[in-house]
Amino acid sequence: MTNLFSQFELCFPQLNSSCRKLKRPHSDTLLINSVLSFTSLLTATLNLLVIISISHFKQLHTSTNLLLLSLAVSDFFVGFIMFFQIFFINGCWLFGDIMCLLYVVLDYLITSVSIVTMVLISIDRYLAICDPLHYPTKVTPKRVRICVSLCWICSLFFTTALMNENLKRPGRYNSCAGECILVFNFIEQFADFILTFIIPITFITVLYLRVFVVAVSQARAMRSHITAVTLQRSERVTAKKSEMKAARTLGVVVVVFLICLCPYFFFTLSGQDTLLHAPSAIFIMCLFYLNSCLNPIIYAFFYPWFRKSVKLIVTLQIMKPGSCETKIL
């Protein structure tokens, strides 16, 4: 019996009710820790650059950038929360039941805000491209602030409603000390699947496809009005490049969103997400978090102002008096 007991380690050796640590080769553990730490740091850093850029430079205080700011804030905290996934690698949660519940609540809240903000961005781009004449009056900074506030408030309400049973008694589903388990019934999982996956991806896909169709039709209309042969050929090349760039950008947005979110929601809908420290769950959740790392790349790195502002931030030019008035656009 002594030899059998020595084959594993306990999360809390002083407790007989302690969970067992998952045994992995040291090289595998080191690799997983390194990847998670790097992704967490990269996610936080990229989104922090977006936050500083939009907050500091007054020229960037536009309606669209307010949405990007909200997205960056939520994704920044996703990077912070992702760091705690490292503590699930060995199968032990060392911070108690309250912190476990707080971790999962913040996880659901922040990722929900990130997804809803992506929907708001798609609506903003739809109105800007498909209804440009009325866009300045329909989309104002005040209305955007209201929408962003409602986004955070509704996400908090949805998260607390989803966690209702788990909030009543933290740790009620743990079978041993060192576990972090939350259980959701089928209705809760289905509601989460519909409200945070089906509806958002439908909105994003439909609106962006509409934007692409309008952009292509506008480009063709411009070509049809060109009479000079030389100019017509030049315009045709330019329009062709614009169409390809729009298709590529929209394709990246939708495909990345699907790749990162589909596995997570299908996994949770199957009811297998109760063990947050299981290897498959760790991989799927990290893939889910990866979307927050890619968001600033997709939505911000495509903008020249972001590259310029990053240079000013890295070189500490923003520390100079009056730097907030710098022309970025």
From TrEMBL:
It is found in: Cell membrane. Residues 46-299 form the G-protein coupled receptors family 1 profile domain. Keywords: Cell membrane, G-protein coupled receptor, Membrane, Receptor, Transducer, Transmembrane, Transmembrane helix. Its main location: membrane. The keyword ATP-binding does not apply. Signal peptide: none annotated. InterPro entries: GPCR_Rhodpsn, GPCR_Rhodpsn_7TM, TAAR. It comes from the Eukaryota. SMART domains: 7TM_GPCR_Srsx. GO terms for cellular component: plasma membrane. SUPFAM superfamilies: Family A G protein-coupled receptor-like (SSF81321). The chain crosses the membrane at residues 30-54, 66-89, 101-123, 144-163, 193-216, 250-269, 281-302. It is a multi-pass membrane protein. One of its GO terms (molecular function) is trace-amine receptor activity. Belongs to the G-protein coupled receptor 1 family. This is Trace amine-associated receptor 13c-like.
